[in-house]
Amino acid sequence: METSLHRQLKSYYAPNADCEEITLGAYRIDAIDGDRLIEIQHGSLGAIRDKVKCLLEEYDVHVVKPIAVRKYLIKRQKKDGKTLSARFSPRRGSVFDLFDDLVHFTNVFPHPRLTLEVALTIQEEHRTARKPRRWKGKDYRVQDRVLRSVEEQIEFKTAADLLDLIPGKLPSPFHTKDLATAAGVQRWLAQKMAYCLRNTGAIELVGKEKNALLYEIADENQAAA
Question: Are 81 and 69 in contact (CB under 8 A)?
Fold first, then answer.
């Protein structure tokens, strides 16, 4: 079921209501702005991978990945019922969360006709209570997500654009611990970053140090820096 967040972002990016939900051949496009197709993807980028790859054969495509930098959590006993609690989640998202999903999209990005945008947002997450499962499980169900604001928009067209996210200068060679320190993220996410940067051609594998893989920035990205 479409969320309020998805509807709001379509309106945010489309020039007008007539440019939303357009049928193009076998596909339904979220919005069209001139000759550019716009796809809003809150879920996995892997879910639209084949669709985008097909559309890129003929069109310029702009994929928007919304990431919640803050979430306001509203919990009710039932939908439209009395509010049980309302608070901001202590977890804060960042643009680096993109890499957790980009691992499923590196066979599409980069592409000359593709722009990938991260929309950093503040969202409301509306939840309803439910009985916890016998094993691990959440005690709530997400009913809707609502856009409060778009805080920042960051576009990526090339592998070098991904590399530009990393502040400071990495050692040469470097491993994922160095990447985690430079970006201020956990090691597991740095490993996904390294996977994406390697698969998009931004960095190259140059060896190993004990169990750690060693990387260097690819020559063309060194020249661009």
Answer: no
